[in-house]
Amino acid sequence: MDCCCRARRPDLGPAFLGRLLRTGLKTNQIVANTLLKCLCYAKRTDEAVNVLLHKMSELGCVPDAISYNTVLKSLCEDSRSQEALDLLWTVAKEGGVGSLDVVSHSTVIHGFFKEGETGKACNLFHEMTHQGIVPNVMTYNLIIAALCKARAMDKAELILRQMVDNGVRPDTVTCSSLMSSLCKHGRSKEAAEIFDSMTAKGLKPDIVAYSILLHGYATEGCLADMIDLFNSMKNNGIEATCQVFNILIGAYAKCGMMDEAMLIFTEMRRQGVSPDVFTYTTVIVSLCRTSRLADAIDKFDEMIAIGVQPNRPV
């Protein structure tokens, strides 16, 4: 049955269960949970809910955290987070709250956020803490990211303090969410403080964290800080992506510093990173604006030669 899911034929799973039952073999928790997995993968979530609530007892099994989390995840992926929440409450009322864990609640919280139901997600977060279920780093990251997206930085920082007070260690995802929100509000210096604190906490900034702060510096015109951070990234063994080079090229081009932009473009090619349509668009448009038409045409020809299709601005 599990192989059917891995082979992307979950619809065949229930047939194997029928064959198993006809042989007189008894089912166990693993078999029942795998059946739920097959039904959910096959987008037969309603059947999975029915099996979870009514049929598992007939199979001699009691639903556990894996059973509930499988179905909850499927409901949320189908944008049915309210039904997932109703299932949570149903299980709790029937005394099965012990089978619901932090993953169960985090799954529904994530579902609500995806559907834009921030209020319901936050209410469930507070409810789970009242029930004595301790949020993990994933739960806190969901809440902090959503609050940052809603421009509620004060509340995000409050949740961060609560997170630390509860002994949950922030990770790179936590820090990146906060940095991204700060940079979007022109507060790259504060974002840099969070970035610097990561290494003090034993966290290694990844390419996402570097890209966020680079973009913040670029947007605010802090070119010296931007290039220092870029060099630091290289020294720490983080390979620059096309997106990173686009940030640098765009920052210099925006300030009319085309010589510096072209040096970055050359470095990009030297490191084996292929420019994309956004790279060429920035370079060509900026060269045209500075009356360097011959150079712009050279880059246009180069763009065509390597198979990058021009867009309307080019």
Top keywords for this entry?
single chain, 314 residues, mainly alpha, 18 helices
Descriptive report:
With 314 residues, the protein is mainly alpha-helical. The chain is 71% helix and 0% strand. The protein is elongated, with a radius of gyration of 26 Å. It starts with a helix and ends in a 9-residue tail after the last helix.
At a glance:
This protein is an all-alpha fold.
- Structural category is mainly alpha
Rounded Rg: 26 Å
Extended strand count: 0
Largest sheet: none
Envelope shape: elongated
Mean pLDDT level: 91
**pLDDT < 50 stretches:** none
Beta-strand fraction estimate: under 5%
Helix and strand succession? HHHHHHHHHHHHHHHHHH
Distance between the termini: 52 Å
State the helix count: 18
Q: Report the helical percentage.
A: over 70%
Outline the fold blueprint.
Elements: H1 2-6, H2 13-22, H3 29-41, H4 45-55, H5 65-77, H6 81-93, H7 102-114, H8 118-130, H9 137-149, H10 153-165, H11 172-184, H12 188-200, H13 207-220, H14 223-235, H15 242-254, H16 258-270, H17 277-289, H18 293-305
Helix pairs in contact: 3-4, 3-5, 4-5, 5-6, 5-7, 6-7, 7-8, 7-9, 9-10, 9-11, 10-11, 11-12, 11-13, 12-13, 13-14, 13-15, 15-16, 15-17, 16-17, 17-18
